[in-house]
Write a structure and sequence with these properties.
This protein has 171 residues and is α+β, with helices and mostly antiparallel strands. It is built from 5 helices and 7 strands; from the N terminus they run E-H-H-H-E-E-E-H-E-H-E-E. It has a domain at 4-120: 3-Layer(aba) Sandwich (Aminopeptidase). 32% of the residues lie in helices and 31% in strands. Strand 2 (57-62) and strand 3 form a beta hairpin.
Length: 171
Amino acid sequence: MAVQLVPLDESHLTGIESVLDDADTLRFTRVPEPVPPGFAREWLDRYEVGRRDGSREAFAALDGDGSFVGLAFAPDIDRVAGELELGYVVAPSARGRGIATDLLRQLTRWAFDEIGAERIRLIIDVDNVASERVAAHCGYVREGVLRSTYVKASRPRADVSVWSRLPSDPD
C-alpha cells in the first residue's frame, strides 16, 4: 500500500493524539508516560520550530483516501555532519499492511535526496521485532546493540539496536 508523506501540521493533531493513545507507541518510542496534557500540540510545535531551523522534520502519513495512518520523522538532523536519525510510527488501525516499510523507504529517500544525508541511523528497542524487520527490508544494516540505554524516565533502561544506511548501500 502506497502512502503519501505530507509535512506535519495542525490538521494532523487528531492523528497524533491517536498514536499517543497506543500502548505499543508508548512502549517503543521516547514519548513520555503518562503522556502529559497538551503533549501532541507541544510535540507539533517542536517539529515546526525544527523545520524552520533545519534541525528536525516530521511528516504525516496518509493513505489513498487521505486518512491518517502514521508519522514519519527525523528527530535529529545534523546538517554539518550529514547525519540524521529517522523514526516512524504506524497508527494501530493501519498496522500489518506494509505501511511502516513504505514510510521508512520514503523517509530514507527524502533524507538522501533532500537533506543530502551521508549516514542515517535508526534506534530500535530490541523487543520491537517488527520494526527491526522493517529496517532490514529497507536496506538498513544492524550495527549492534547498545545495552542498558536510557530511553525515557518512565521505563527501565533498555537494550536498543542501532541500524544505519549510507548512500552507497543497496536498497
